[in-house]
Amino acid sequence: MSGKSSKVSSWRTVAARLLLVLLLIGCSESVALAAPASRSIADRSVSWPTASQWRRVLFLEDYNTRVVLLGVAVLGAAAGLVGSFTLLRKRALLGDALAHASTPGIALAFMFATALGLDGKSLPVLLLGATITGVLGIGVVLVVRSQTRLKEDAALGIVLSVFFGAGVALLGIVQQMESGSAAGLEGFIYGKTASMNASDARLILVASGIAVVGCLLLFKEFKLLCFDENFAGSRGMPVLVLDLCLMALVVLVTIVGLQAVGLILVVALFVTPTAAARFWTEKLWRVAGLSALMGGVGGVFGAAASALMPRLPSGAMIVLASTALFAFSMFFGTARGVLIRWLRRFRVNRRVRRRHLLRGLYELLELDEPDSVFRRDARVPVETVLATRSWSRNQLSRTIASAQHEELITLREDSIGLTQSGYVQAARLTREHRLWELYLITHAEVAPSRVDRDADAIEHVLEPELVDELERLLEQQPVHIAVPASPHDSLSPGALQ
Amino acid sequence: MDFKANSTSDSMTNGSAVGPDDTAIALSVDDLTVAYHRKPVIWDVAIDLPAGSLIGIVGPNGAGKSTLLKAIMNLVPRASGRVAVFGKPYRASRHRVGYVPQRESVDWDFPVDALDVVTMGLYSKIGWCLPVRKKHREAGMEALRRVGIADLANRQISQLSGGQQQRTFLARALVQDADLYLMDEPFAAVDASTEKAIVELLRELKSRGKTVVVIHHDLQTVPEYFDYAVLLNMRVVAHGPIESVFTSENLQKTYGGRLTLLDEVSEAMRRRERSL
């Protein structure tokens, strides 16, 4: 399975999820809004924040805002760091199953705690319940995957929907319960940073701290695990234990992140920053660092937006903020962003066409001047060059312009001539090309995959003795052309034209 | 029995002082059976591989060659069987084993460079939680130099050609300085000069008394590259010195009627005899 496709698919899942959540919010607002008495039911507008709201959030005037932003920043960073390993391990969606599977745990924890006369909405209790069913969910995925011949995506799909469905049903029952108000539990579904207090933030800090330290300590081990588990196993590394450690870190961060981001979107914290970081660098430690940074920044911006416009759930805002970072990275990333890839492809194509032009010119001049003495004033009409290859007039004139810019050719009155340096390059290219052709003809039994024609020079790929042999073959070609003709003509007469 | 013949031919080709010990067995597999889903993949494999030789494992696709190597290293569960590496269980002598997995088995899009991959061979030596240090990177560079791609040390691995990726994997095994190397198709889809470089490396390893077990696909080159062969098709059809086991009859048994290369192989054997 290729890394790219799995990354794309997990990314797509996140995007689809986000749309769904925004839709759901639209629907649920109308129901949930009945609660706040100060506002009229008809008032469903999301109002633009006032100047004083801006000031309070931007300058961190509220204690609560400070707590929330700090908590979310640390959470985002920890998730970004852990996520860089899970994404490379191609296990990103396991975290999603975990989050969804935690729903029934939250409802059940509330039920039990209320039945025992405890505070049903105490966060540690709810998170304990979430952890138990979440881990159970992952366990079921792993069992289904290893004991049946179902693939991981089927296992994930089944577990995720069954647990979430059960959870939603249980939450429905909880709402009907007479003892204790269950209002606020749905905050776990979409995320609600507003309800976060200092002790919640402390919980996030501790859990995230453990995750960060764990990742840093086991950086090298996780790297090898994600890259090549067979080799890791052959060296005696406990692959299973390492996988469990990684999973434990995911559980830790996911569970404490439920409150802030909501269980539907928490997976995005693990996927989006890493996918974005990958566009900027080819080094794992930089991917991890950048991913942590972007996770933190995305978290802060999202939580700030949610603080400014309290109707907008923080989870969705955080995901939107990190997605903005992702989109920016996707286009402008300096290592593998879309723009840089376009640019690289453009350059390669231009270079290939320039080479074709030089070689074409050389061969045309060669036909004109059998003694191959290079004359500075030898010229070829553009029309003749156009006929040598299947390029469009447009492509050719752009190629001519770029070759002119490089001072390889001169263009005068619709005829092209080679400059001194252009001639040298053209001769080298032609020789190289003919050696390759000869090689492919004389060593026809060699599989094409073993010939790396993209290499700069034939000498880098073939052994020197073989190149010598090919050179000798070239020299045995008809003597009237000092720089020998294309081997097509001599070795397989009539193969061309 | 077979080993006598092998060691004499070895000392003939080597001619050097360090001939492999007659009695030394690098790898001993006994009664090994591995089953994946419903049916066993390899049956009752029993082989003793002499130390200090180059050993080729050949067999058709699906013959269980990779599974055999993985089972030796406990990477897949065994249904039955014993494995001894230099007389001890794999666990006890794994620091003496260098593994070169199939190139296709990893994601080459992974964000690491060639030197990173090579230093992975030292992780178990470095120890848990400790970082890769300068001396480890230097050892990695030395290994890259030995396979001829030291200038590509900082290149991201997806930007390496197939042959260069294979050399990177070889360097990762070399850096361990093992005594037994298990290589899964190192010659698969590499360019001609890489193939030659790998062959030279194998010979160098052998001259230093190392044992190299190579899964190989190209029957024609088997007599040229190896001095010992294991013919595998779920069971071991034959194993022993090339001269005695690499016969048309055994190959027919291994590959069934599908083998069209038989003539070319016997030609290759004749070439080998002439060169000896």
* Strand line-up in the sheet with most strands of chain A: 1-3-2
The ordered string of helix (H) and strand (E) elements of chain B is HEEEHEHEHHHHEHEHEEHHH
What CATH architecture label of chain B applies?
Answer: 3-Layer(aba) Sandwich
> What is the CATH architecture assignment of the largest domain in chain A?
Orthogonal Bundle
Number of domains of chain A: 2
- Overall pLDDT score of chain B: 87
> Total number of helical segments of chain A?
21
Please report the total strand number of chain A as a whole number.
3
Protein name (chain B): High-affinity zinc uptake system ATP-binding protein ZnuC
Domain ABC transporter (chain B): 27-259
Pfam families (chain B): ABC_tran
Organism (chain B): Allorhodopirellula solitaria
Describe the structure.
Chain B: It is an enzyme of class 3 (hydrolase). Chain B: It comes from Allorhodopirellula solitaria. Chain B: InterPro entries: AAA+_ATPase, ABC_transporter-like_ATP-bd, Metal_Ion_Import_ABC, P-loop_NTPase. The complex is a heterodimer of chains A (497) and B (276). Chain A has 497 residues and is mainly alpha-helical. Chain A has two domains: 285 residues, ABC transporter involved in vitamin B12 uptake, BtuC, CATH 1.10.3470.10; 157 residues, Arc Repressor Mutant, subunit A. Helices cover 71% and strands 2% of the residues of chain A. Chain A starts with a helix and ends in a 6-residue tail after the last helix. The N terminus of chain B is likely disordered. In chain B, strands 5-6-7-3-8-9 form a six-stranded mixed sheet, with helices on both faces. Chain B has a three-stranded antiparallel sheet with strand order 2-1-4. Chain B has one domain: 3-Layer(aba) Sandwich (Rossmann fold). In chain B, 39% of the residues lie in helices and 22% in strands. In chain B, a hairpin with a 1-residue loop joins strand 8 and strand 9. Chain B is globular and about 55 Å long. The longest helix of chain B is centred in the last third of the chain and has 16 residues. Chains A and B meet through helix 9, helix 10 and helix 13 of A and helix 5, helix 7 and helix 8 of B.
